[in-house]
Structures are given as C-alpha cells and as structure tokens.
Write a structure and sequence with these properties.
heterodimer; A: 415 residues; alpha/beta; Aspartate Aminotransferase, domain 2; 2 domains; 7-stranded mixed sheet; 14 strands; B: 82 residues
C-alpha cells in the first residue's frame, strides 16, 4: 500500500503539532445562507445555533441578495451550469465579456480579465508582465496570494516597511537600474483594516518611473464615495496601473476575481497568465450574479453608505465600551488582545453570546498582536451592532480588559 | 567577527524595525521565529549580505534557521568567506 502506516503516522504527528501550537483550524458548518444572521453547527455534531455573523467578507450584504440570486438563476437557465473549458479555448461567453467591460467602467480602468479567483489573479499577473530584468517592490504586509505570485515570477523582488513611504522611496532609488519597477500593495489591509496611502504612492511611482498594483479585494464596492475602491478614496483613479480584486467579498461573495488596468498589461495576462490559461472559466451563474452586483452598486450608493454608517456607529460604541481597537475607517475592526489564548477564549465566549467572531494569531498576524477581527456588513442592522457591542462589554468585563490599553493588556495576559 | 555582527545588526534595525518599534534586537535575538523578519522580506537581508561581503549564498543554505539570529547569519557568512 502506497499510503503506509509510517506515512500516516508522520502526517498525524504534524497535525498533532499544529494542535499543540494552538493553530488548528476547527470545523464550523453554516447551515443557512450567508447573511447577518446565520445558523451554525459548532462544534461539529452540535445542534444548530442562530448567531450574528461578524466575521464574513459580506461587506455589502449582497451574498444572499434576492436580485443577485435571481440573476444567478437566469445565468444558469440561459448559459448553463459550467463551461467545461478554459477561457481561450471555448470558455468565453458574451456574459464574460459583459462582466469584464462593466468592471472596467466601475473601477475606471482600461481593460479587465476574469480569473477563477483573486488568488489566481495574483498568482498569474506578475509572471505574465515581468521578467528577470524587472523588480517588484512590495509592502511587507501584502496578502499571501500576492506573495505567492511574486515568488512564482522571475523578477527580482524587494519589500518596504508597512506603509512607510520613506522606506519605499529608498527602495525605488535602490532599484533604478531595473527595466521595470512595480510597486505592490493592498488597498485595504485585511488584518488591520488600514488604507494604503495611494496618493503618496502614486506620487512616488511617478517620480521614480514605477508602475503601481493595488489588490483592492477588501475595498471594491464600498471604499470611496461611490465604492470604486481605495483609488477613489484617495482620488488617484488615473494613477493606478493595475488593480486585482475579487467577487468573493463585497461584490457578491461567490467566487471569481480579476485583473483590471492598462490595456497592454491586461493583454499580456490574457496571453500568458497561467491560472487564466490553465484553469476553467468562471461559471455562468456566478458571472451573471456578478454583473447584477456591479449594476446594483453602480446605480446606488445606498449599501456602501449604510456600511459606512454601521462602521462609524460600531467603532464609536466599542470605543465607549473601552475595547482596544486599531483606529481606522474601514469595516475591518481589529479588537486588539495581543495574547493568542485570550483572543481565542474571548471569541469562544462571544459565540456563546450569539456573536460569531474569530481570534487571529501568529502566523496570520505578527506574534504578540493577536486580535479578534470584527467585520461589518451593510446587512447588519443597528440592533445587531448593539448586540455585538453588548456582548463585547460583557465578555470584556469578564476578562477585565475594558478600558485597558496595549501595555496593560500585555501586562495582565502576556503576549 | 564583531565588526560583521555590528554591521548586520545595524542593517536589520534600519531595514526591519520602525522608529516606534519596541523590539530590541541583540546578536542572539530570534529574527525569523519572532516575526521581526519574515521569510518574504528576508530577501533584502540576503541581498545586503551578499553585496556587502561579495559572496553568493545558495538558497539551500539561506534558510530561515540560518537567518534566525545575527550570530547564525555571521557564522554562515564566515563559512563562505573561507
């Protein structure tokens, strides 16, 4: 037998080590549609509990929107279940073109190419457009999928301190001998919810003749006054060369991603990006659902406005309650606990209060910076937010952390 | 060796720590395993050492373990300096 007992034992030891390190990801089953209120089976086999969901990327509350569901049904009925092909053989329908065109208009870019996911977009984009004569200069806290894509590319790479423009400038100076310089950042960083200073980055890229790529997965649809993203927020839409983003978060939450930007760069991705060339087309129901999402958010800012209100209200109430949060203006609200066990214990107690949140620890976040990441949604009503704050007050009080700052929490619980 | 340690440490503080960072780094401080330097950003440290000491560190030797402290980095550099 190829899978021998010794192999099994070896792998079992590795799994055991993950558990001992406190990094084991437990199974949680959602037994309802994705929404502000969900039914959860946790732990596995337990009876279903109705809880409020504060850890989904469902920023605009469109995951179960009736118009999106209807559009997905229409896509299924008129264009079928799947394409059984990659895009360039016989996997491109008229609706794929329509979605790409609508995304280009929405993001303010010249052209767009769909990928099965943003993970795939990020895996493929660098290798398609850069070679060994070039350099990528990336923020140190970019998403793991960008890191993977950069490592797959033959270009040299370098990093700069998180959102540190002086350090970025130093790196741009250092790499002036390269054919092409590509600066890479997240628009909104997923763990801290902070916004990359794109206005300063565009200025630096112009000065040092560099291109700029922004992964706006945690921004598309709701950051900026009409939800175009981080580049709209900083009023630098024309200064961005490439945006990668996902349909798996604010934009409907199903799956799929894209690269959008200067037409020559998109054409190179179409010709060379391996996840585009070797992975199946986005399924027609998802394409049609995503078209509806873009139509909805292009015609009204109601949902992003509600999300903005929810964010302000929640942050204010949490501050009043005395929780230590990272400051910011995005719907990603990190409640800082620093100690991994404390973060996990509080998340578990919050679940018992009917609030579904998750503790994040090293290596997902830097060591000693464990937190609960609360994610807000336009699907949340004021009473949902109040219930969440009330639970944080109760559990925070139980652990004696209300009103405490970083040093006091670390003193009490360690890092 | 002491001069080398000083040079490497100075680079690490300048390259990886922010001005308001509370981490204090000594020759024996864990860099990778503590998260001060991650495997992604380790590339600039490797490039600095290679340029500074005119050596080429093979990928199989430039491991997170070998790069985990200033002391272990300097041992690796000295091995290649012969």
């Amino acid at each position: 037998m190829a899978f021998s007992n010794s192999t099994r034992s070896l792998l079992a030891d590795e799994i055991e080590q993950i558990k001992e390190d406190g990094l084991f990801k437990e199974k949680r089953f959602i037994c309802s549609a994705q929404d502000a209120e969900i039914e959860v089976e946790y732990p596995e086999g337990a009876s279903h509990e109705k809880v409020l969901n504060f850890c989904a990327n469902n920023y605009l509350g469109l995951s179960s929107h009736p118009d999106v569901i209807k559009a997905a049904h229409e896509g299924l009925d008129t264009r079928g279940y799947g394409m059984s092909s990659v895009r360039f053989i016989c996997g491109t329908q008229d609706i794929h073109r329509e979605l790409q065109d609508k995304v280009s208009v929405f993001l303010g870019m010249e052209d767009t190419l769909l990928f099965p996911s943003c993970m795939d977009a990020n895996s493929g984009v660098f290798e398609a457009i850069l070679g060994q004569e070039d350099v990528i200069i990336a923020d140190r806290l970019i998403h793991a999928s960008l890191v993977d894509g950069i490592r797959l590319c033959s270009a040299e790479y370098d990093t700069f301190k998180h959102m540190n423009m002086k350090h970025l400038e130093k790196k741009l100076e250092l790499h002036q001998d390269r054919r092409i310089r590509l600066v890479v950042t997240d628009g909104v960083f997923s763990m801290d919810g902070d916004l990359a200073p794109l206005d300063e980055m565009v200025e630096l890229c112009n000065r040092y003749n560099a291109m700029l790529l922004v992964d706006d997965s945690h921004a598309s649809g709701f950051i900026g006054k009409t939800g175009r993203g981080t580049h709209e927020h900083f009023n630098v839409i024309d200064g961005i060369d490439l945006i990668t983003t996902t349909f798996g978060k604010g934009l409907g939450g199903a799956s799929g991603g894209c690269v959008s930007g200067r037409s020559e760069l998109i054409e190179l991705c179409r010709q060379k990006a391996r996840p585009y060339l070797f992975s199946n087309s986005l399924a027609p129901p998802i394409v049609n659902g995503s078209i509806k999402v873009i139509d909805l958010i292009s015609s009204s800012t109601e949902r992003r406005d509600k999300l903005e209100w929810n964010t302000k209200y929640f942050r204010e109430k949490m501050e009043e309650a005395g929780l230590d949060m990272r400051p910011g203006e995005t719907p990603i609200v990190p409640v800082m606990l620093y100690n991994a066990k404390l973060a996990n214990d509080i998340a578990r107690d919050m679940y018992a209060e009917g609030i579904y949140v998750i503790g994040f620890c090293f290596p997902v976040v830097p060591a000693g910076k464990a937190r609960i990441r609360v994610q807000l949604s336009a699907a949340h009503e004021k009473e949902h937010l109040d219930k969440c704050v009330k639970a944080f007050r109760k559990i925070g009080d139980k652990y004696g952390i209300l009103g405490l700052g970083k040093n006091e929490i670390i003193e009490k619980y360690g890092r | 060796m002491d001069k080398m340690k000083e040079t490497v440490l100075e680079y690490i503080v300048d390259e990886y720590l922010d001005e308001d960072d509370e981490d204090e780094v000594s020759y024996d401080s864990p860099l990778i395993s503590s998260g001060i330097v991650d495997s992604f950003s380790m590339v600039s440290l490797k490039r600095f050492i290679e340029n500074k000491y005119s050596i080429k560190l093979p990928d199989e030797e430039a491991t997170p373990e070998a790069f985990d402290t200033v002391n272990s980095i300097c041992r690796l550099v000295n091995k290649h300096l012969g």
